[in-house]
Protein 1
Amino acid sequence: MTRVKAVGQRRQRVYGALGGVVAGYAGLSLSELAAAAVRPESGPVTAVGGALVDRTPAAVKDWAVRQFGTADKTVLLLGVLAVLALVAAAAGVLALRRRAAGAAVVCGFAAVGAVAALSRPEATWQDALPSLAGGAAAMWVLYLLTGALTRPTGRPPAPGSGADREPARGLDRRGFGRIAAAALAGSAAAGYAGRRLTAHGSAGATASRAGLRLPPPARPAPPVPAGADVGVPGVSAFLTPVADFYRVDTALVVPRIDADGWRLDIHGDGVTRPLSLDLRELLARPLVEHDVTLTCVSNEVGGPYAGNARWLGVRLADLLREAGVRPPSRGGPADQLVARSVDGMTLGTPVETVMDGREALLAVGMNGAPLPFRHGFPVRMVVPGLYGYVSACKWLRELRLTTFDAYDAYWVRRSWAARAPIKTQSRIDTPRPSAEPRAGRVPVAGVAWAQHRGIARVEVRVDGGAWQEARLGAEDGTDTWRQWVWEWPATAGRHTLEVRATDRSGAVQPGLRSDTVPDGATGWHAVEVRVRPA
């Protein structure tokens, strides 16, 4: 009898855990439906994930980018869902003994979601509602399912068992199954409705982008010079296709902004004529087209987080001068330009850099089309020569003039440097690591960049030997990367290839390896290959 009782208790706990997961799914589905009515960022999974991103040390974020690349957000959201499932299962098991204990666990998780949503930038009290509504739904479903697991069996208690006043309780599988099926069906319907509402809410943004016709540039970029592409298979395209352009940011839900309602405010220290522009007014100004290579500070030596595109936009320095701004070198009181996106992200850019004559843009176009949503539609910043975290604010809505002493932007508060000029880097694209080319003439090729300084020379060496100068592709300007190639007379065996670049200031790329934190990685990219006999 004891063994039979133990088996029954284990089975009941399994059903309790399953009931908790079903209740959690019901709560999550209703919360996402409510978030569609408030704003997508207020959903508990997104809010908790965003709060975790905000509180994760820079070194851990850097590790996540290295391990998971652009899938880091998906991994984070799956992790939050896994934790939610475990908590829900535990709540279901606890509720078998004491419903109040199970309800307390559900309430606690709902409270975490609500607090996380309220902690997000641009949050209002309404952002707490989806988590609270989902918590209430989860508690109700858990109450019903627990009732089916603990209701009286109808069998009288044994005489002298001490349970004369309490009827025996057991597992009502049919009742549990009916309630669980109804909860799952309702949850699926709520989830579908939430997705439809979210899609409907973003339909205006999608239509506004589809209907946007960008004016021709007053100053078009010259054609990419012949010879910019060295013609070696496997080398990164000189102009990166939009679909292949890297994306590194903290937005777990890509903002979808209706261009008709977008507005930019420029104000702060030293602004004598504050500006407030809508997209039509911005596009009425002269547009400039310029090729710029962007690079993420999280890019390791030889990493993929660099891309080259043709950007179309308004010169940022012209707008600042129109607002009365003077750079610090001319007596201006502000040395930092803080850009704020619609999701609350802040980036701090040196005012002197923006106004020193380089083509710093408020970009509206990328490779001949309006910006994609994932790359900042309708307007983003592009400042040649600076890492993206201090210059490339996407989904821009505000520019505020202040000082570095007075304000630390988002990433600076998380151990990254306040000023971050891009370091000279080079990368071997072909041959790939562990490749097995045949002995003979093997092209070693890749890209090198030193934005706003330009690349003067690239050199390659084999097995620590003498440096050999590579042939450079034609230069499109100092703000873009350059392709390069060196014909290697490869011999059979294992070999290590290394590359280094020299920029136009004469500075040689350092060989000493350093981490990406706090202001970008250094070191020579190396590739090991095994050359087969000819």
Protein 2
Amino acid sequence: MSVTLDGDKSVSVPDRAGRSPGIPPIRLTRRLLHGIQRLFRGPRPASVPALVGTACTLIGLIDIAAGVFPRFRHSRMHSFAEVLPGALGPFAAALSLSAGVLLLLLAHGLKRRKRRAWRAAVFLLPVGAVAQFGYRHSLLGAVLPVALLALLLRHRGEFAALPDPRSRWKALANFVLMGAGSIGLGLIIVSAHPHRTIGSPGLTDRLEHVLYGLFGFTGPVSYSGSVAGTVGYSLGALGLLTALTTSYLAFRPEHPAARLTEEDERRLRALLALHGGRDSLGHFALRRDKGVVFSPSGKAAVCYRVISGVMLASGDPIGDVEAWPGAIERFMDEAKAHSWTPAVMGCSETGGQVWTRETGLDALELGDEAVVDVPDFSLHGRAMRNVRQMVKRIERAGYETRVRRVRDLSDGELERIRRAAADWRGTSTERGFSMALGRIGDPADGDSVIATAHKPSEDAPGPYGDLKAVLHFVPWGAHGMSLDLMRRDRSADPGMNELLIVAALRAASGLGVERVSLNFAMFRSALARGERLGAGPVLRGWRGLLVFLSRWFQIESLYRFNAKFQPRWEPRYVVFRSTGELPRIGFAAMQAEGFVTMSLPRPLRRLARGRRPRPCAHGVRATADREVRTA
């Protein structure tokens, strides 16, 4: 039953059977009125970009279908498609196709709140509305784009994101993708009229007809009736769109990605001199393909790189922990201004706590960093037997090691090490971002450490003399160093990396180094727990998936290699905004680390390498060496 208290307030009371009555009529009426008010007020401003982007995507797909498939144009769905931008008079198919492609191109930019996408949509929608009303006298066809235009104009403040970094390569990428898409759509258009096609043209004839049509010429395929004009206009529209969009991207002003300037690098080095011992990844902030934002006080900084719309920071902020919130706030403001997705790769537990507290982001454990304390390291004991035996065997084979600061090497020897590291690189592109410096032997990095393995031979020396392997370490404050890259001659004996790591640990005390950071082991805890006795089926299944993925990403092999030296494990985290963004962040991270690249096919790469000199070597931390995979 219902009891009324103090005016119109109604309280629901369960009856004797324990059943609760429905919602009181007054409360239901209020909810209905509130819903009607929300309907008239329209969507919330924050949801408008996603709503408009989704609407443009749906309209674009329907317009493309209306322009490509003749049955769709004469179906019941056509009565709905006709009121959308693009279905105009005698050129309905071509205009519908053009409008659909343009709306699809704009949809992603509108969802990301891009100002230029908003301007293009504001220009396109009234053109469609005027064409609808002028050619077809369709009032409803003009109302829909005008309604969407009104929504864009009312919430124009939501579309204020600045442009992304861009270069002339975007024009080439657009030409390739739009060209391939135009050829694919063109084949569908040419093949969508089987009852109007004269003869039985083969795939080669249809492809030739598409290629001719994209340039505005008539191909070998003939049609009866007015279909030939429809196909010709549609193919010509696709070719024109490809040419116009490529020309726009090629001739628009460049907006290069942020790069570390000399002044930025000077300020970062000053911060590292004071606080560089706190994070083993601090020196990697000096990569010159990163941008940087400083706190208002200048006592802290966050280094980042923008890839595929993701603003990717690496490691902890540089500088005084008390000033981190100011740098993080500047980082988030920059991400908001460009509508970039903020993310952090490989921050420490302290860094993750500050990031999540200051921004409301979430954190997920990504893996563990292997850190060896030099005073505690020893080759004695059963746990180090395999490493001890391998090192002794290699030393008996005549190999020698040298561990020196970069400033102590001559220019000629540094150049030889650079060329050797580039030639021994196992991939066509450099890998590394969050844990890689990107260079060897820079005069500004004189405190870096290089460990080399040599084997004198009575035979004729190779192109790099007796040099057989190289390890490069960067400073970690005043009393530490972090592994940057591992490279070896493929003809050298197995165990070069173990030999040089042991040599570096033995020489560390003489260099004033008390701790050494080795490779980063992704998902290390899952691999370790999954192989223990009593591990559950979920944990074992997760470990099995990681082992399977190790065929391409060396997840397990790096963990096994690091574990040989009995390190202590320091967890590292990824910081993200929402779970739905993790795939995008993961893909951007793989691009940054060099696992996903846009490169030429292998035969063309070999031809290019044969005609030009190889580039200088750059650093990469945890690059999977063939020896690591087999160790």
Protein 3
Amino acid sequence: MDVHDPIARAVIECAADAIVAVDDGLRVTVWNPAAERMFGWTADELLGRVLPIVPDELKAEHNAVQERLLTRRSGDGGQISIATRRFHRDGRLIDVRIDNSLLQSRDGEPLGWVGVYHPVEEDEVAQHHMAERARLVRRLNDIVADLNAELDLGVVLDRITAALIELTGADAGGFVRIEGDRLRLVNVSGLPQRMLGTTADLRSSLVGELMRSGKTVKLATGARRLDDLIWSELDGLHTVALGLSFLQNRPYGALYALFSGRKIGHTELELLELLAGHAGVAVGNAVAYAEVVRQRAHERAVIDSSADGIAVLDRDGLVRQWNPAASALTGIPPDEAVGRPLPFELPALGEMLTIPLETGVWLNVLVAAIEETGELVVDFRDVTEAKALEEAKDLFLATTSHELRTPVTVVQGFASTLANRWDDLADADRRAAVATIAERAQSLGRLVEHLLRGARAGADELAVTIETFDLVKVLEGVVAGFRSLSELHRVELEVEPGLPPARGDALATDIVLGQLLENAFKYSPDGGEVRVRARCEGGELVITVEDEGIGIAPGDHDRIFERFVQGEAGDRRRFGGIGLGLYIVKRLTEAQGGRISAHPARPDGARTGTRMCLRLEIAD
């Protein structure tokens, strides 16, 4: 029927049933008197306006019917009847049955739709249809609740396609994700699993057509169009329905329903559109959850890989996270730390606190607050070495000032005496004063040399040359030089016959041996024998320097090689020095691949005498 024909217009005006026609923009073009009586609006109020009688919850059904009509043109029995509800002007809902038809031009182009509305209070068929619709809605609600309760994306997609087949009776289904200008098949049901992961061009696909149409659901029929991404794998396929899923108001993917047996109706199309919409919500939840999981895993990886100890405290101050570095620094494993208070004091927010642990470790502790959760993040790092260096600097200043004070005072005093009383002093007194100044200057020179060597050793700047050298010659030279330095000490040298040459640095070894002999003299104030021995042992050259002095306190045999540490307990300044000699010895020895250690001279461990043991490599 041509609704613009005068005769047709007269029939419409006289019809007992409400007749409503809309163009392809959904604007009303026909609104007969029966429509005025049924819905309460006059024709003058609605002609040219968008049809206002479709409830929001039924717009998907309305769109599905229109899409279905588009596939029935060309004389394919082009009418669809549905039982549904529509708005009255006063806001109440009216139960109606609508016979929908497509309006076409003479050349078959769609112009709009026309609906004939019948009251259905007594229509049992319509009541049955409404009951079936209610059942489907209830089932859809159950499915949506099930979808929204699941947060695993793969499971969500499986349930969506399973629900699609259950509700629409489709023979197969699938979900494609939009990835830029491509589509990727990420889930299938009723199709071969090998198809997963295949891609297709978005623009030329039905999804691209649907997006360009501005609609959310689409039907495709006919063999000419069934050559897209997935449906060619389904034998006997005659109809494809697809609905868009949105994520954050942007198209995320599309849900396909494929039909090779039964026919598809507007109800199935409506269910597809609704399910695709809910799928977008469920997928959005799963994607957001996956992102939260990924973010937490990233944060956990950062925390676990941090060299700093990191603890997260809840509102009650109890530990909730405890990374590996925290366990290493405190010695407390996670299962003993989590759920308990922090094992050390917390500083105020924005401040740093340096605290010692019972284990001797010093920590710098910082705290930051997470305002959203009320949690505290505690960061703590090991500053034991820095603390020891700070103490060493203080000790260095105190020790150096002590060691420099006496020789400088003596030099100043004798120099002042010579300058002021030169003519009054006898020649012997002048010579004695000059000799004292020279001796004290020599002491200052040795002290400065120790300081320079200690600084280079601490900065790893000790330069050694690894080569083959005659160890016996070095030993004989060092011993000969020390035999004439003290009348109280006797230096004896014992060298194993046929001692092979050493591999290392001859000058560094000379300095090491000289320092060991100097210490042997220094810590044997009453004199005695100092015995130097050299032999081969276990593929190494072993040189020992043994004295009869005061010895080393138990537990200090390793400490004496640290900076600013002396081996004599009590008044540590009694023998002078700044405690750098053995530190330099250790660094020079290790720089040439050797080892140095300290031991009691007597086998019973009594604190009488010291035996220093130097081990060097034998030359190839």
Protein 4
Amino acid sequence: MASEDNNPGEPRVNGERTELSKPIRRVPSIPDPALHKELRAALKKRGIADRVAGAISTIWTDPAAVLPQITNPQRRRIPGAYLLVVSGSVYTARLVPDPLNPRNADHVPFALAQAVGAPPAALASAAQDGEGELAIHVESRDALIEQVDWAIETTRNRNRPVPDIAEQGIMDPPIGVATTVHYDGTDESPTTHIIVREGSSRTSHGLANMGVDAEEILFSLPRSASSMQAHIDKINGYVGKPVEDILDAEKAAVRCAVTDFELIIGVVPDVAGAVDLPQAIKARVAQDHLNTKTPWTDEAKNTALAEECLISARAAGAVPSDAEADWLGGRITPAEARSRKLLPYGDDRAARAVHLFTTDEPRIHQAVRKPIALVLINEPTGARKRARVTARTKLPLAVELIIRELRGKASEAEITRFRKSLTEALPDNIQKLSWLPTKRSPEDLYKAAVKEIEDEADMRPAVTELWVRAAYVLAKHNAISGPRHDLGEGGDRRSARAVLEALAGSERGLRHFRQVIEDDRAGIKPRQVDDQGQPRQDGEGNDLIVTNEFLRTKLAPKGGEIPPPLTPGSSVQERYKRGVKAVRETLRSLETEMRNLVGVVDDNGTPLIEREGRVHARLLMDKLQELAGDAQEWWEKAVEAQSPGTNADTITVDEGEDEDETGEEAA
């Protein structure tokens, strides 16, 4: 048996084992420009634009090895198509990590949130812009630099590859595509970059190890042979040092300077026109991250998919205008929405998002379904498996669109709570309900909803619309939450959905739905209202706020009986009955708690209240005697009031009022 010291997998230095780190090697110098020209010409023959071909030709360390692949590219299978790919060794510093990396989708701050100091990041889908080329639009070069810097740092912070890239370099080849950036806010000419679409995390770590920033990888190193050669010379200077003088950070820079890479230059769909280049690339990324692996969070996945569904819905006309698509996507502020003649209210935006992603109307459903199905298709044996896209699949995407209003200005815990509360508060089987988001005011919706209840209508579109809008407001203000399990018999295990369903079935509940929507639109917290629709107030004259406890215990108690609020207009007799009932319940509770107190005994079985409770018992006795005195006074006055000759109309007692708790007549 070989000894551990003879393990051939463990390299040795001076007889001692070292870590299995990647050896450092000199970075190849920039190839002969003639090879770049030849490669550029071959790419143009394939129909690739000259500007794009130029960007592609300069990334390779050995263009001669890539040249034969241009006429005979490799094929990579994805659902519904083949990607055309060329591969080889490239300079890492000429690759751009995806500025729109969907891994970071759940951290992207949107204009809708109006977050002060938030980075200028935004999701914008890349569209096909020629053979083997995508295009994106940004405001300016500075905006692109900031976006790439944000994406690199966010990606690195959220994902640390194992083994460490500083030790091993970039092991799995990143996959990318030539992408032209158009600068809409300036007169600057478009620029083309090789953007990594799969492997952004690895590339981001590699670039960080080399100490290059976004401006260099975008506009300095790819554009200038002298700048690139200076970069190569700097790294090779580390290699030329005595081995004992080379720092770990310098070794990491050398290991990351070059990587294997796959460049996508086209797509061949199974059915002509069924899958374009952007869809094919997303499907390729999804194969690694959304089906078989789970490095992305569900929130990131849903945010990215929601964006694709929104684009698809706009293309199909299911979203009527670019302005509405921008509003639903959170890319404009409420003020900008108003200027574009859109209703600038959060509840309206939420209702439209929920309807878009849950309706079974064929045109809308198919438009939303297509991007989701492309991701959910699984081909373990090469045979296509039809994906089932349901409201359960789609609703989380709508919720991610809605909560974009909080990205960048609320904590992750607040966003998580809002997401969960909203999802649980919406109607069950909402896809089976016939409703549409309308432009009716909350008051008009309320009137229509009340009429639907009074008419006992089978279809209640106004009720549903009012419910959806109110669910958004209540979830946003933390006024509705899930079941409570912490209070024994006093607990309420009903879901938020069940509570709102009870409210949706009563005029009082619908009145509060209307009120919370109106209050949210006015920028104030949702308020409780009485039967006349007037805000209820506490003893100091402050408006009473709608809370989860109020909804569950006062407005829609779990027994189903909804007592009317005690307003100044309530009858004296009704208030008296409630007071008597409350006192009786309190006495029963006191009796139970006193029994429980006596049950707390020491090792000898002596109740602690009898051994140590002198002070406590005295206080209790004094208070009970005081209360007994009050009760005695009440009794005497009641006897006097009901004596012969007294006006008996002063107090009216319901039949059975004098019965004791057993139901038998009092002696």
